[in-house]
């Protein structure tokens, strides 16, 4: 936004399919998503893999000396992403594989709201490790551990006619830098 300050930005949150429909009719120019376009999709678009990040877990208070990650998650209150999130199924699967049974106290479609509730000590939550420092500073929480085998992937999707769009290219470049 600093580089292209003359442009008016409209940021939307919607289902993946809803955003693809808007892209198809040129109502939006760019989608950041946790998945790319499926093969055989009828929408004329470009899908760019940006990178991936493992997930870290955050809590208002740091772990005590007696606590170890990830075992500390057992019976701990947990704030999780809603069913529309791509990471939800992977997180649930990871918890089962690790034989961890936290107490899910709330589900959020809005990740900023999830982090806000975490900062108010309603439970532990996870966020991409790539932005761990930002999450700690912004929300006043502590990273209590990293699930290195639990990864979230990120994609940029643009309409084919927008393939050379300068702002889209700048966003893709910046995102790849963060996720590198």
Task: Describe the model.
With about 180 residues, the protein is α+β, with helices and mostly antiparallel strands. Helix content is about 30%, strand content about 30%. It has five helices and six strands, in the order αβββαβαβαβα. The chain has helices at about 15-25, 85-95, 110-120, 130-140, 165-180, and strands at about 30-35, 45-60, 75-80, 105-110, 125-130, 140-160. The strands form two sheets. A four-stranded antiparallel beta sheet has the order 1-6-2-5, with helices on both faces. Strands 3-4 form a two-stranded parallel sheet. Strand 3 (about 75-80), helix 2 and strand 4 form a beta-alpha-beta unit. The longest helix has 14 residues, at about 165-180. The chain is elongated and about 55 Å long. The relative contact order is 0.26. The model has no long low-confidence stretch (mean pLDDT about 90).
Structural class by secondary-structure content:
alpha+beta
Q: What spatial order of strands do you see in the largest sheet? A: 1-6-2-5
Q: Mean of the pLDDT scores?
A: 91
Helical run tally: 5
Short description:
The chain has 180 residues and is an alpha+beta fold. 28% of the residues lie in helices and 29% in strands.
């Amino acid at each position: 936004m600093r580089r292209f300050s003359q442009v008016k930005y409209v940021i939307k949150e919607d289902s993946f399919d809803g955003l693809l429909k808007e892209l198809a009719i040129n109502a939006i120019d760019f989608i950041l998503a946790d998945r790319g376009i499926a093969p055989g999709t009828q929408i004329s678009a470009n899908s760019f893999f940006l990178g991936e990040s493992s997930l870290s877990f955050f809590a208002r208070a740091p772990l005590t000396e007696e606590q170890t990650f990830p075992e500390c998650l057992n019976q701990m209150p947990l704030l999780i992403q809603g069913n529309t999130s791509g990471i939800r199924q992977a997180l649930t699967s990871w918890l089962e594989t690790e034989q961890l049974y936290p107490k899910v106290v709330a589900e959020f479609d809005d990740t900023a709201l999830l982090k806000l509730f975490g900062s108010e000590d309603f439970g532990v939550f996870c966020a991409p490790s790539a932005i761990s420092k930002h999450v700690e500073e912004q929300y006043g929480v502590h990273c209590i551990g990293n699930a290195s085998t639990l990864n979230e992937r990120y994609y940029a999707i643009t309409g084919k006619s927008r393939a050379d769009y300068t702002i889209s290219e700048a966003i893709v470049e910046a995102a790849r830098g963060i996720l590198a």
